[in-house]
Amino acid sequence: MRPMAHLCDERIMNNDVTNDNRTTRQLWRLTRGQRWWFAGAAFAMIIANLCLFVPPVLGKYVIDMVSQQDTAAMSPLLIAVYGKAGLVELLIVAGSLSLLMTLIAGIFLFLRGRFTARASEAIAEQLRLNLYARLHATRASFFDSEKTGDLVQRCSSDVETVRAFLASNLVDISRSLLLLICVTPVLFWIDTTLALASLCLTPLLILGSYLFFSRVKVLFLKSDEAEGRMTACLQENLTGIRVVRAFNRQAFEIDKFAECNEDFRECEYHMVKILAYFWSLSDFISFSQIGIVLIGGAVRVQGGYISLGDLFAFITYVSMVIWPIRHLGKVLVDSGMSMVALNRINHILVQPDESSGQVPHIARASGALRIQHLSFSYGLQSVEKGLAEKGAAEQDPETLAENMLQDINLDIAAGETLAIAGAPGSGKTTLIALLLKLYEYQHGSIELDGYEINSLDKHWLRNQIAVVFQEPFLFSRSITNNLRVGRADASDDDMQAACQDAALHESIMRFSEHYNAVIGERGVSLSGGQRQRLAIARALMKDTPILILDDALSAVDSRTEKVILDALQSRAGTRTTLIVAHRLSTFRHADRIAVMDAGKVVQLGTHAQLSNQVGHYQRLCAIQNELESTMQADLDTTNSPLITA
Amino acid sequence: MNELDALDEKDDHDISNALQSELWLQLWGYARRYPKDLAWLAVCALITGAMEICYPLITGAVIDAVAADADSSKLWDYALLYALVTVVISVSIGGFIRIGSKLRTRISCEIRRDGFANLQALSFSYFNRRPVGWLMARMTSDCDRLSHILVWGFLDAVWGSTMMIGIIIAMFWLHPQLAMVVLCVMPLLAVASVYFQRRLLSSARAATAVNSRITASYNEAISGVLTSKVFVREQANLDEFSGLTHRLASAKIRNATYASIYLPIVVTLASLAIGLTLVIGGVEVLGGAITVGTLVTFMGFANNIFEPVEKIGERFAEMQMAQASAERILGLINEKPAIVDAEDILVDNTDTTPIRHVQLVDVCFAYDNGQPILDSINVDASAGHTIAIVGPTGGGKSTLVNVLARFYEPTQGSVLVNGQDYRQYSQHWLQSRLGVVLQDNHIFSGTIMSNIRYGQLDATDAQIIEASKLAGAHGFIMGFDDAYNTQAGEGGNRLSAGQKQLVSLARAIVANPQILIMDEATSSVDTETEQQIQKGMASLLKDRIGFIIAHRLSTIRQADRILFVDQGKIVEQGTHKELMIKGGRYRALYEMQQLDESARGLYV
């Protein structure tokens, strides 16, 4: 964990006072439901500290008593309770009383620890759950501009920083203050002059330590950033280790890492070096403070102003107070950082929900899609927001961001199979994302069964569509559990049927644990083709009126592709199917083909129509035809009897 | 149960009381590289411990001085002494923090360096079994933890024993009976310390384990957010996650509870010792056997002696608990790469002979678990030859090219390069002559330019642009506002899947390889772009050896030789024409496309 890495965020560094106030209020709201526990902890802490004040007082009386060899020096209170007892008897009473007080203090210390842990953990748990839920509920576009590592950091170490503030920093601060508040009157009651002397260095220590840690925060930041760079370097290397090996770049990578590694070491060492000065100096001040009390007190005893026991009490009390105070500066700075952490957490928590709408009256759509004048740009959402903030909304936002999709018009009948062709970056995947309402389109409309999908409930809509993404994401669980993502209550037969249709069943049966095989992080233990086919099977588990395959067969050989496409067709019924593909064999399976280029549908029609139209598709067919005629020629010249497929 | 659990499961059951000395000796080896720093650290620890003993003695002496009504000059001597001790202890504390931190950061840096270097040498099979997150944790938190224990453990051992021995000697010198009284509480504390520190650390570990699951969970939630959305899994995921957070909260509360029990116990035990000293010492003072000052000194000692016991107990428990970390990180450093250069390599890296010929002779390959992947593969290729590999998925095509590139070594048989077994070359020699486009092409964050330059670090911009043109990537790159300086994003996520393939192809081309291996390099690219690439490739491969795995027959049929691989065997091989005449599985594959096409033709 890197508790301070969040400070790297510049936006957060510039938080102003109003922001701080808001954060404080939010912190207060967070404690709702746990406030009694905090109150209980505070109460237990006060009791414990009061009890801990007693033993030094007892020590003082004992020392006065034994040094003056007189019971009269013993506390009048003790004498009142026990009557006139012998010296030894009083000694035993004092000893046991001091033990008893510590024991009581111990019990309350325990309660304090338990109560604060309960309260702070409950709050942290709630925060984590809120974050997790928010990450699922917010718009997909949010993730375009965020780094996964950074988001994870906000959810883990920033929450931890806030928790630590609630659990220990808050307690530390109040304990130090409580100690000071309780001890000061006692000291002044015993001897004013010595009391002043015993506290003379305390403000210096608090102020100095606070100023120091505020300054050293910059070094903490630097060191954390260096660590972040090192971790990122490591992560990237390990993720791409196969590429590193393939290009024989080990030496290059080792040098690169060595640089980050050394840089982090130096930053950290530089920081700790400064810290060493601080601890050394603050120890000097603290010991000196005790020294002043010792020598000053001795002079006061010689002058007859205080007794030996008073001196003893003074030394003990000052030692009790000085060490926690030395830590106060660090604690105060840490607490300041928890405000920063809270702001970083808020960055996620304030993200708006995805828009959603009404659940229509039909349980299952027929699958008819009508896309009209659809235009979309990834940058537009943020551009529009930025313009609105600057009050320059009259500017045409379209001029500012390149359109990913431009004026798309498609009418897809229920049960139709539409193939989409196009070069990399032509907008195929974007179109699919819009159909799934993962992004909100700005112009035009998409209707499903006559319902504008912007007005539809997002869950209802997504339950009508099964999709296989181009780079499918698999969960690091068993094959069964991955399939159950498609449908939670799927039976074994359903799963087997889906895997058979996806031409995956045989491969699965070759694993030693069959359907229970765990497929590792993102499915690493599967081949590229197996991953795609598992994603297809998962989509098939979901029996929906619309099926979308986004280049989902690219890593599958043509034979398997045919098996899958045939199975899909026999399964289809009235299913509307959208297939992004590159192979002509796939296109021939489709009722119609849409060719996309630079965000536009440039051609639309059946295979027969398009192959007679000058354009992309014809060129594609020409390439294929050329191949086909050579293939046919090959078959003819080699003249082998046809093998029935 | 996920893979991480399985990997860590061993550790959880493996906490033994016995410290494994060879493990710690190897780690100690890292510290021993700095004998001077270690010596200074020991000196600082010794001085700090000794000075801390002085404080109760001075306090006692001052009290005796005033009790005896001594003149003030003696008091000022003590003041001077106190000041001196304070200066010395402050300097030595600053010193040990500085030296210790220097050592700690150095050691951690070196362990990391060694681990990283070895990770670069380990073979693909090692990474197949270990998720990135698991390796990251070893290289970051485990590293820091061990260097921390090594240095501060050493410091506390010296400081603690100095202080304990010093206090015991001082106490016996002052008053043996009273010393015995204080000492009799010590074993209690030692037992309590070890007991509770172990409990504390193991509950902390339980919390850490759940915590890393939570981090992994967030990670998966963010990476797979689109999948969760389209499968409407939001609620189901949240339910699973809430189970985890609840476990974390309980684990942490348990840990905090142990901590809140432990602290009062230590305080109470200290108070017992002080109480006993107060009573027995008080009686002795009354009897005139000791002075009040000595009594105060004793109470100071009774308070101070617990600190080292506590600290040493803590370090001991820490070491016990960190043993698993030590094993893991040393395991990572000591792991022998499955593929190492032979000591008597015949051809050194400076040899500039190009690869003109490769031959696979009876190559078999099986994974560690004995599962056979390749069986008696024989391939022969000379410069200018392109070999295409076809066959069903999972048949061993990728493994074959991985063996060829020596990412795996054959378990039987051999690969001959220019007539010599490739184990007689260094890996560097061979692999720097390869250009590989893997099925899982990883794009690094950074510009497109720097990604392509990864193929050849000293490539000029012109060379990079030329390679991009050959790979069919130039067009879309120029379409970006920043052209070649466009940021590719984390893992290349600002590019589409097809664009990533084209960039990795350009990266392989710029390496100017003698053998070019393409494992489904253009599967996500449209036919027209692919056609363009093919034309470029034909001229590129003219005097190189090419191995191409593809599904599109157009790519395949132009190859000089085609291998049909299924279930680890070459079922058929020959030129396109030969295989067509043969009328086997290749032809069946071919005909299937043709049949499909003619059937459609009728329909149209």
Largest sheet of chain B: 6 strands, mixed
Instruction: Name the strands of the widest sheet of chain B in spatial order.
Output: 6-7-8-3-9-10
If you consult CATH, what is the topology of the largest domain in chain B? Answer: ABC transporter transmembrane region fold
Helix content of chain A: 55-70%
Mean pLDDT of chain B: 82
* Helix run count of chain A: 22
**Termini distance of chain A?**
59 Å
The CATH architecture assignment of the domain at 5-349 in chain A turns out to be Up-down Bundle
Description:
The complex is a heterodimer of chains A (about 650) and B (about 600). Chain A is an alpha/beta fold and about 650 residues long. Chain A contains 22 helices and 10 strands. Chain A has helices spanning about 10-15, 15-30, 35-70, 75-80, 85-135, 150-190, 190-200, 200-240, 240-245, 250-300, 310-350, 380-390, 430-435, 460-465, 480-485, 490-500, 505-510, 530-540, 560-570, 585-590, 605-610, 615-640; strands at about 370-375, 405-410, 415-420, 445-450, 450, 465-470, 545-550, 575-580, 590-595, 600-605. In chain A, the strands form 2 sheets. In chain A, strands 6-7-8-3-9-10 form a 6-stranded mixed β-sheet, with helices on both faces. A 4-stranded antiparallel β-sheet of chain A has the order 2-1-4-5, covered by helices on one side. In chain A, helix 8 (about 200-240) runs antiparallel to helix 10 and helix 16 crosses helix 18. Chain B has about 600 residues and is an alpha/beta fold. Chain B has 3 domains: about 20-335, Up-down Bundle (ABC transporter transmembrane region fold); about 340-435 and about 515-600, P-loop containing nucleotide triphosphate hydrolases (Rossmann fold, 3-Layer(aba) Sandwich); about 440-510, Rossmann fold. Helix content of chain B is about 65%, strand content about 10%. Chain B has helices at about 5-10, 20-30, 35-65, 70-120, 125-130, 130-175, 175-185, 185-225, 225-230, 235-285, 290-305, 305-335, 395-405, 425-430, 450-455, 460-470, 475-480, 495-510, 525-540, 555, 575-580, 585-604, and strands at about 355-365, 370-380, 385-390, 410-415, 420, 435, 515-520, 545-550, 560-565, 570-575. Chain B is elongated. The chains are: A alpha/beta (about 650), B alpha/beta (about 600).
